# Entry
Amino acid sequence: MEDDANSIPKLPIPGKRNILITSALPDVYNVPQLGNITGCVLRADVYARYCRLRGYNALYICGTDEYGTSTVFSEENCTAKEICDKYHAVHKDVYDWFDITFDKFGRTSTPEHTQVCQAVYSKLWELSEETTKQLSCYYCKQFFSADFLDPYGGCNHDPVRRDQCKTFRKLLNPPDLKYLCCKLCHIPLQIANTDQLNFELQLERYIDETSAAGAWGQNAIQSTKAWLEKGIGKIVITRDLKWGVPLPSEKYEDKVFYVWHNAPIGYVSITSCYTSEWEKWWKNPENVELYQFMGKDTVPHHTVMFPSMQLGTGENWTLVKTISVTEYLNYKGGKLSKNKGAGVFGNAVKDTSIPVEVWRYYLLTDMPEVSDASFVSKDLQAKLNNKSLSNLGNFVKRVLSFIAKPESAGYGSVVPDAPGAESHLPTVSLGRKVGKLVEEYVEAMEKVKLKQGLKTAMSISVEGNRYLQEFQLRKLDRTDKPYCAIVIRTAAGLIHLLAQLLEPFMPSFSREVFKQMNLPPHFSLSDERGEVLQASRPWKILPPSHMIGTPQLLFKELKGEEMQQYVEKCLADRCASDAAASRRRARRHAARIRRYAEEPANLITRLRLRSREASSSKSDRATLEAGWDKGMHETCTNSSHDGALADLVDQLRRERLESRAARSSETKGGAIQMLTCAEAQANWVQKRLGSREASGLGAD
# Structure
């Protein structure tokens, strides 16, 4: 996956094209699924390989984002650090199998990451403090972001996650969400005040200029403009959590940076783990071009939040030049999602018998560059068995097998000389077509139009097959040996060229072709060496008298039974994962019942006393609300007795009404509001109790 740890780190080279490539950091707490692999790391890998092919000085950086709240509140019985260690290894294993060539695949839970984040924070000059309302759970004694609520956004559309509404593309503060319950104990949450740090985003001019200069795609521009048009203003960059990058301030020692503030800085910190001279990459905009790859749901975080922080420090940062974005890869009518457990996951793919080059080819030909695409297992089978891959494999095997035949029927595994090729009209015509296709390939890849680049490269194999079909090689070998030598040497040059062009997309295929051609696995399409111009003279690519290796079948047909076994395996893996999650939830629920279950009379008495104490005390409305909420939270958490809970709700409602009526007229309005709030909570408890009875689960 990565370069040798003992190798000398790459640094920008004056006079060369230096390209810094990043792909969105995947959330560590899950197995990579095909949507993330295709939209981020795979596409970035293709472009990084292309840059190396062209002789550019390219550095590809990625890693796992390990400070998300999903790590803190995981369902696994281990620490956040243990979870990160476990799943970082899972990510690395999957990406290794997919032949992803990071220069550095790191992680954000490192001392270097903390150091870089705190350095950026200390230099931001537009931070302001503001008291905000955040959701908290009394029982768990924890503030929550939107990740661990059961919310619906303010637009009444699908459930939202990570503080953002994907329907209207805007950030949401947790108090703006509806129907809020704690995911850990399923209790209604209350709003509490907490001090947070804000940062104001002002980027309209920068985005207009950069999107035009970097030729951003329409999906990147539209996602960014949607954020700006809605009006962003100040963004809270802190959270009340323990796991994360701590703020370098005694006043905020109980807070950490919001994950979307520190995650993009992970690109920088991972580079600092790669080389101590990381600033030569990240603070060198005159000599370094930054290309970033991601799915459309994280675009504004890279086009708005990350550059805002960079510009806010007043330092000379390397800012993004080109953003390459994909739409969603869907599965069974919905978006592939790690969080929801929907989709095809990398570990299941790795354990199939389908070669990695087939997976890469399928995902890259069907990648959702402009609109959403769907993963269908039958399409994968069709892609492997269709004309494109079979024509490519047949073209290579046909030519190399003919060369490998004995001299009486072939060339004894030696590439023949081809004098007179420049005057052979069919060969010259083919050379012109191929030269033009290679120019189109380079143009598409330079614009990061990867799907078009792959399609153009594959069309060269189509031209090669047409070229062979013009001649009957066996007959030509018997009747006109020099003529046949021109055709064979030209076709062998095309195979060499195809392996070069397809290396960014199917590296294992290219390595195997070069092995069969008895060539070292060094791929190059450099202007400096004239290799692009040479494509129009394919008969010149391989030297005469070069001895090839042993030809073998490159692509094996995937049968229907094998495909069915693969589908069943993926479903079995998913079901096993879902069953394990259900067992974990059941164990937590049982432990809660065992710990807090008590007799209904004792529970009612304790709650009634707490409620009366709060009602009779000469305290303000907040104290009364706290007394009621605390009692109600304990009731919902502790009670496992259906009838007692229903009776308790009625008794408390009557008692609260009597106590409120006895209060002075000055506080009558507030008392009525408090009673309304209490009744709303009581209604929620009764509704929840009824739904659990209907499902046969009983009360919590």
